[in-house]
Design brief:
This protein has 264 residues and is an alpha+beta fold. Helices cover 26% and strands 22% of the residues.
């Protein structure tokens, strides 16, 4: 990255092949260290949240593969993982999780798991990223960044993209405000979600169908040096006072009625 900017002159995105099926208690750092391309200081590991959930036991395992039973369990899990419902339409629920993430179904996922399983998001993805970074350092003696990624939809845009839900060893949000661009304009509001950009880049080699849950992004660290963990992914969560779209329809109606003294 150039001084004051997040741009890198050149990056490589490499898939980590040969990651087998993971279960609770597996040492993720050890699993990654063996098949990964030789890691270098400054590399950033992009790790799909599901493999973290598997190793941390954040899985619901049913005693049946019946689709109806699985759907009932999914709805119960969504309810348990939700702190606020933002919007609902038919069976779709957009909710806020305890992490502060706003996404469909509270991140409860039935893809890339066995037919009798459901995956929940890690409890503390930033801490999971920190532990993985420490594990890689202990095993290989290299300083890497870690981004734990999950797929998210985007308002006003079709399709999903991967975004960062856990970050360690890199600045998740860069802030060039107050600096000038090449035309001499002072940047006043621009902040860049670098961790989200890295998560999306990693998905270009991981994909959704090939069973490749981990990628390495190389070239983003200036001189191979990475910062301390800092705020992690919390830097990417917009505070409620700045969120122009925080209220779901039902909340907005209720608040409007309250403001005009409409009894419910």
């Amino acid at each position: 990255m150039t001084a004051g900017d997040h741009a890198a002159p050149h990056i490589e995105i490499l898939p980590v092949l040969g990651i087998g099926e993971l279960r609770q208690g597996d040492d993720l750092a050890a699993v990654i260290a063996e098949p990964a391309p030789p890691l270098q200081d400054g590399d950033v590991l992009i790790v799909t949240s599901k493999v973290v959930s598997k190793t941390e036991g954040r899985m619901i395992v049913l005693d049946t593969a019946d689709p109806d039973a699985r759907e009932v369990a999914r709805q119960v899990a969504i309810e348990a993982e939700t702190v606020r419902i933002v919007a609902e339409r038919d069976a779709l629920r957009i909710v806020e999780t305890r992490h502060g993430l706003v996404l469909a179904a509270a991140g409860v996922d039935a893809s890339n798991v066995s037919r009798n399983e459901l995956a929940l998001l890690p409890i503390d993805p930033d801490f999971s990223a920190h532990l993985l970074r420490e594990g890689i350092r202990a095993r290989l003696g290299v300083e890497v960044g870690v981004v734990i990624s999950d797929s998210m939809g985007r308002p006003w845009r079709a399709g999903i993209t991967d975004a960062a839900i856990g970050v360690a060893g890199l600045t998740a949000l860069t802030d060039p405000r107050g600096r000038t661009d090449v035309y001499g304009n002072v940047l006043e509001v621009t902040q860049v979600a670098v961790a989200d950009e890295l998560a999306a880049a990693g998905d270009l080699v991981k994909g959704k169908l090939a069973g490749i849950p981990i990628a390495v992004v190389r070239g983003v660290a200036r001189d191979g040096k990475l910062p301390d963990d800092g705020l992690g992914s919390r830097a990417l969560i917009r505070g409620s006072e700045e969120d122009l779209f925080r209220l779901g329809t039902s909340e907005a109606i209720a608040l409007g009625r309250e403001d005009v003294g409409w009894a419910t």
